[in-house]
Amino acid sequence: MFTRPDNWNELSPLERRKVRLDAWQNAPVEFVSPEAEANYKERIERLRKIYDMEPHDRPIADPFMGANEYVVRRKGIQGKDIVYNHDKLREPLLEFHREFQPDVSVGVLPYPGKSWDLLDFKLYVWGGQKLSDNSVIQAVEDERMMADEYQDFIADPTAFWLKQYLPRAYGALGPLTMLPDFPRISESVDTIDLLLPFGMPPFQEMLHKMMEAANELMKTLGSVGQTGAMIAAEGFPGMGFNIVKTPFDYLGDTLRGSKGILTDMYRRPDDLLAACEAYVPVLIKAIVGASDRSGAPAALYVLHKGADTFMSKEQFEKFYWPTWKQVMLALYEEGITSYLFIEGSYNQRLEYLAEMPEKSLVCHFDQSDMGPVKEILSDKFIIAGNVPASLMTAGTVDEVRAYCADLVELFEDAPAYIMAHGCYFENTTDEKLRAFLDSVKR
Amino acid sequence: VSKKLVNAIADMREEEALKLAQEMVEGGSEPMAILDAARQAMDIVGQRFEKGSYFLPELMLAGEMMNQITELVKPELAKMPEVKRQGKVVIGTVEGDIHDIGKNIVTFMLDVNGLDVLDLGVNVSPQKFVEAIRDFEPQVVGLSGFLTLAFEVMKETVEAIKAAGLRDGVKIMIGGGQVNEKIQEYAGADAYGKDAMAAVTLAKDWGGG
Lengths: 442, 209
Known about the structure:
The complex is a heterodimer of chains A (442) and B (209). With 442 residues, chain A is of the alpha/beta class.
């Protein structure tokens, strides 16, 4: 939980950023030993200097997202366990940290498989459900907002989410359509409109299911939280993120589907732009709220449909960038750093990122050309990436070592660099992972 | 009119393209003439994609226009003799992966470029590929995968094709997501295609077209 100091309104964006980073860095941890405490402090101080773009002894290597499946799979954990059985992940995760001594911790996302089963969640399929036991999760593309529903979304994105999107995303949440609209009059009848659905048997049945699913969720979060606390107690800090999406990706990935949104760019461009605009204030409020609740200093965007191969530069400039930039600038004002995990390549997009204020971004690249990245962005922002998953799977240890050494050399005189994956490497070897982690150590 | 149709499709003017196609049908144009115009337009779309002025929105919309125009001429088309295709391709997203957007675009581009494509869908097991190769007898096999887990499965699929004694009879191309030359070598495929047009070029070369 992050609490704003009394003088918050007088602080500049970078001062607010510092307050958030201080709170994250100094959050209380119960350590298992003085040695663990010393290691934790050394590690988080180095990471902090990177976030601050201040001089520090060496880059860090971050396995946080890239290796999170591999580190449990190497101990025989199956995909379905990552969705259903979080207790089972604890020992493999602790063992990995003890054995490899990474600069930052590796976490596993708290996928709540049992809650998903209870609510008939449709956005994904997963291991132990419709996928084989060794799979984790995969997204199911579908239209969850129809082409003729743009006006509903634009008028009220939150109401759309609650009454139109959720019933399509969760089979068990159909009765949410019974909820009242914004009250036509807030007098005595308001109570009737509000409570009426709650008196109906299908709605009550849904509420019971939601409570059952929520109880399962609490077990999952409890287990994942305990594992995270144990990893921190042994001396490993986390990167400190909340996960978010850009307005265009939210509309594309979640509501319209790829085919829907890509053809909307021609068929109903004005509706699409208006929907992105309508979503901006809602999204900003949601991210700031989540950052305050969790105390995480950064918002992690996993970027999808704005990449070089998806759309032209002109389309990016028209449809993708303006509303995303608005969101990132608003977060910057709130002292929240935008951590961009840039999937695919962004060779044609670097100058747009360069428009952002200094220290507002961490730019984590997947397949982009790192030479121009260094030249155009590394004075202003923290740079991370881009060890390819293909190399970690099919390359030799020496090839991994050479690739990482080139990155270290390239960013030697940059203010802040994080050695990190391009795409996730779920299938590698201990030797290659060690070569990756050790590449930054002197 | 047919030149106008070519331009309307190639320039992404969907409403105009459909109206023109409708007029041509009503005016008694040969269904093949309408489809030829649409194919010419797809050639232009493909060239613009290769040159980097068109991207996925244009390929998607072109696909939509092509489908709608094919539907329009279908009643007439049923009476026509089958066109000679330039080679056969079996394609699918490998086992464990359910992503199909990239694969569908490749399938569509192969189809409009005159190849006979059997699309096995998503989450296709090595065995299913083997059976399809036996039954359909393609010159080309396309393995698609968006997730990194597909690397291993592509390798297993190539091995299964080999074990079935079918490897020498087919060329195998792979593509999608994080796939590159490194993975081509790892999986034992013959080539990797970075996008749909690369797949068309490969398949045409191998298919004898």
